[in-house]
Amino acid sequence: MNRAEIIRLLGLTDPAEIEGLRRAAFDLTTERLGDKVHYRGIVEFSNICALDCHYCGIRKSNRAVERYALDVEQVVESALWCAASGYGSCVLQSGERRDARFIGFVEECVAEIRRRSVSATLPQGLGVTLSVGEHSIDTYRRWRRAGAHRYLLRIETTNPALFARLHPPEQHLASRLAALNDLRDSEYQVGTGVMIGIPGQTLDDLADDILFFADHEIDMIGMGPYLVSAGGAMVEAGMMDAQPLLSLACKMIAVTRLALGDVNIAATTALQALVPDGRERGISFGANVTMPNLTPSQYRKNYQLYDGKPCIDEGRAECRTCLEGRVLSAGRRVGWNEWGDSPRYGRRSDHPPAAPS
Ligand code: SAM
After folding, report:
1. What are residue 298's DSSP bridge partners?
2. Tens of pLDDT, residues 21-60
3. Residue 356 binned pLDDT confidence (cut-offs 50, 70, 90)
4. For the segment 224-248, what is each residue's pLDDT rounded down to a tens digit?
5. Rg (Cα) of the chain, in Å, rounded?
6. C-beta separation of 221 from 263 below 8 A
7. pLDDT of res. 317
8. Going by C-beta distance under 8 Å and a sequence separation of 6 or more, which residues neighbour residue 337?
9. Pocket of ligand 1, candidates 172, 195, 269: which has the most ligand atoms within 8 Å of its Cβ, to mutate?
10. Which of 43, 129, 154, 295 to mutate to test the pocket of ligand 1 (most atoms within 8 A of CB)?
C-alpha cells in the first residue's frame, strides 16, 4: 500500500466506504490471525515518572497526582490472578525511571511471575510484556533473560517537529528509535504505536507512521486517540471531537491491518474513553488484542494518563465479565490461556519466545 492510498483511506468520510474498509480489515484479521482476541492483563504498577511529556497526566511536573508504587508481591499477585483467570499474558506498565533500584525491581517481578505462573494450563507460565520506557540495551537484555518477551514502546509520532512540540528538549525522537532497535536486537517482540489526533497532526503524518511500522518490521501495535489531560501541559491546544476522533482511530487500525498483515494490534483503553463500546469498535476494525486492567482499584484514579479514563471505579473481576461480552459482541472469541504471540515475530526470528529461565 503506498502513501497516497493510505492517506486516501484515512480520509474516508462516506459511511459505506468506511464500512468497506472495516470489513476488509476484519476479514484480513480472520484470515491471517484467526477469530480470537488475546488478553494482556495490565498492571500499572507505579505512576512515579522522571519524564515530563506534555500530553501525559502522570508527567513529573503534575503535582496534583498522588504518587504510588506497588511492591513485588502486589505485582506478582495481580499477575497470578491474571493467570488464574485464563488471560495468558500480562503487561507491566509504569512511569519512567532509570535508576538501579527500579531496574532490579522490574527484573524481580518478571522472574517471579514467570516462575510462579507455570501450571498445567500455562506450561510456560504467563506471557510478559513490559511497557516501562527507554532504557539501555543491557537493561533490556537483563529483563529479557528474566523472562519478559514482548516490549511496548510507543514512538508517539514519527514527525520530528510534532515530537519536539510534545516533549521537553531533553527527550528525542532519535533515542526512541534507537531504543526500538535495541529491543529488536535483544530479541523481544517489539511493539510501538502513536497517538492519533494530536493537535497539529495531519493525515500525512499518520500515513508516515504506518509506513514507519512497516519499514521497521514492528510486531505489535498499540495506538489510540490522543485525549486531553487536565494534568498535562496541552490543555489549551484542545483535542478533536469524540466522533471524528473515534472514526479516525478506527480507520488507523484498519489501514494498519491492511498494510501490515499479521501483526498484533491492540484495541486500547483510550478508545473506550471516547465511547463505551470503543474497544469493540477497535476489534471490529481489525484489532486482535485487548488489555483488561488489573491495577488494584485503590490506585487506578492515580494512573490517569488522560481525562475520562474508563473503569477506574471497577475491580478486576468486573472487568473480566464485562470484557468477554464485549469481545463476543464484536464477533470474536477470547483466546483463553494462550499467549497469542505476533505471527510476524515468528516469521522474522529463529528464536521462540522465552521459556522461563
Ligand atoms: N513511560 C512508558 C512509556 O513512555 O512508554 C510507559 C507509560 S506511558 C504513560 C504509556 C503511554 O501512554 C504513552 O506511550 C502515551 O502514548 C500514552 N499517553 C500518555 N498520555 C496520553 C494522552 N493524553 N492521551 C493518549 N495517550 C496518552
Report:
1. none
2. 999 999 999 999 999 999 999 999 999 999 999 999 999 9
3. very low
4. 999 999 999 999 999 999 999 999 9
5. 19
6. yes
7. 81
8. 86, 88, 121, 122
9. 195
10. 154
pLDDT tens, residue by residue, 125-154: 999 999 999 999 999 999 999 999 999 999
Q: Specify the length of the chain in residues.
A: 357
Q: Cell triple for residue 255?
A: 489501514
**153 burial type by CB count under 10 A (0-12 exposed, 13-18 middle, 19+ buried):** buried
Torsions phi, psi of 177, nearest 5? -60, -45
Angle 65-300-326 from CA coordinates, rounded to 5°: 140
Q: How far apart are CA 294 and CA 240, in angstroms?
A: 29
Specify the pairing of strand 289-290 against strand 224-225.
unpaired
Which residue has cell 491474571?
82
How far is 114 from 146, CA to CA, in rounded Å? 8
Q: Catalogue the long-range contacts made by 23-27 (C-beta closer than 8 Å, 24 or more residues apart).
A: 24/254, 24/258, 25/253, 25/254, 25/255, 25/257, 25/258, 25/285, 25/286, 26/284, 26/285, 26/286, 26/331
Query: What letter does residue 50 receive in the DSSP assignment?
Result: S
56 Cα: distance to centroid of ligand 1 (angstroms): 6
Grid cell 533490556 — which residue? 140
Nine cell digits for residue 24: 476488509
CA of 121 to the centre of ligand 1 (A): 33
Q: How far apart are CA 327 and CA 87, in angstroms?
A: 13
Question: What is the reported pTM?
Answer: 0.96
Closest CA relative to residue 262, chosen from 220, 204, 304: 220
Three cell numbers written together for 21: 474498509
- Distance of CA 223 from the midpoint of ligand 1 (Å): 10
CA-closest candidate to residue 56, choices 309, 283, 354, 297: 309
